[in-house]
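Subject: for your reference before the review

Hello V.,

The reviewers asked for a structural picture of the protein, and I figured it would be easier to keep everything in one thread rather than splitting it across files. Below is the amino acid sequence we used in the manuscript, unchanged from the supplementary table.
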Amino acid sequence: MKEEEKDKFDYANFEKEAIEKLKNGTELGGKDGVLAPMLKRLLEAAMEGEMDATLCPIPTSPSFHPRSGWNCRTR
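And here is what came back from the structure prediction:
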């Protein structure tokens, strides 16, 4: 998925589609449920944040030394 597609979640469109799907009897949860697209985006954002925190530690952590040549890009 492209970076710009990942960052743009159309909540207004999602709300309209969700209301229509609920009116048509689509389930709320599940693989094809009403909340599936939003849940997918939420989980992807959480995993991306977790990876950023793991791979790019805060410079005040004990393993960080500014002269060691180690940072999130060289790890």
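For the response letter, the relevant points are probably these. The chain has a mean pLDDT of 76. The helical segments are 3-7, 11-23, 36-55.

Happy to draft the paragraph if you're swamped.

O.
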